[in-house]
Amino acid sequence: MSLLAAHNLTKQYDEKDSLFTALNKVNLSIEKGETVAIVGKSGSGKSTLMHLLALLDTPSDGTISLLGRDTGKMSNKQLDRLRNKAFGFVFQQFFLNANNTVLDNVILPLKIAGVGKKARKEKAMKVLEDVELADKAKNKAKDLSGGQKQRVVIARALVNNPTVIFADEPTGNLDSATGRKIEDILFNLNKQHGISLIIVTHDHELASRCQRRIYLKDGEIVREERK
Ligand code: ADP
Ligand code: MG
Question: Which residue lies with its CA nearest to atom 24 of ligand 1?
């Protein structure tokens, strides 16, 4: 059974006196453990597709199934719980809380999930070790470099043992050497823990590391490549 299956997925946005179709009848399935890049020019609908797949937004038409269950039939509460349990996010708009410590930022999803104080601290420290930032646990997030912040975002995405990590331009604001390190962390997670990766990127080198590349143009899938 597919991890995620989109059927005729369509998203329209209201414009002044018409509708703008950002995504047009997209069909796509993603298997457990797969690494998938979503590629395309700016405005092609990549983020729109990613937000729909991540169940952060609802489609105008079409369906998304998660492990065979139609997510359109779930309540908001069920969706919130599901996202918190199964998904990790590496999005630029999900900033860290700048004035909180690194540790508190990483702990947040566990707090939401109701994990006890001691256990959540242990888990958070463990993932901070995985991204080699345990020594910065007590620092404020705002005092870190760009690459370190991005590693904290990954640690936070990881802390709930997600089934899938969604990343929207995860290396977009980083120099290429730091970007490669961030990529290595993500692909190691895939290899070692079977976490699926769905990555929106402009970066062809990053896209080429994924098992599949899906090319979007004007809201439609125009091409697909597999390794
Ligand atoms: P990409 O991530 O590939 O750059 P997006 O998915 O962000 O593209 O956007 C696809 C198209 O939908 C763009 O033309 C964008 O202007 C439009 N769009 C995205 N979000 C909205 C919104 N909330 N309201 C209106 N139009 C939007
Ligand atoms: Mg985008």
Answer: 13
